[in-house]
Amino acid sequence: MTTQPPSTEERLSRLQGAYEQVAERLGDLRSDMHERMDDMNARMDELARGQDNLREEMQRGQEALRSDMNERLSEFARGQEASARR
Fold first, then answer.
1. How far, in Å, CA of 47 to CA of 41, rounded?
2. If you write DSSP's letter for every residue of 25-52 in order, what string do you get?
3. CA distance 49 to 41
4. Which of 16, 14, 36, 35 is nearest to 24 (CA)?
5. Residue 6, C-beta contacts closer than 8 angstroms, at least 6 positions apart
6. In the predicted model, what is the mean pLDDT of the chain?
7. How far apart are CA 29 and CA 12, in angstroms?
8. Model confidence over 41-82: pLDDT tens digits?
């Protein structure tokens, strides 16, 4: 007794089922990819905000240092002027 090969209709049915499984899996992968991209974009936005905050903090620090140096230089210059008058 030999086994009959599957009919064309059976093979088409199996192929259709396999195609549907692949299409479903691709949909799941696409959805996962979009979620990961959204997460990555949120992290990049967070990093950009952190970078902006650091830049602002550095600028404030530089302004404070500049102001302090100008004040010290002015005090030094006043001291030099006072010494020169004596």
1. 10
2. HHHHHHHHHHHHHHHHHHHHHHHHHHHH
3. 12
4. 16
5. 14
6. 95
7. 25
8. 999 999 999 999 999 999 999 999 999 999 999 999 999 988
One-letter amino acid at 40 equals M
Angle at Cα 14 formed by Cα 8 and Cα 16, nearest 5°?
A: 100
Helix (H, G, I), strand (E, B) or coil at 4: coil
**Both structure tokens of 33:** 């990819």
Q: What kind and span of H or E run contains 12?
A: helix 8-85
What amino acid is encoded at 69 in this protein?
M
Residue type, position 9, single letter: E
Q: Which two tokens stand for residue 46?
A: 């967070």
Alpha carbon distances (Å) from 60 to 30, 52, 74, 85:
45, 12, 21, 37
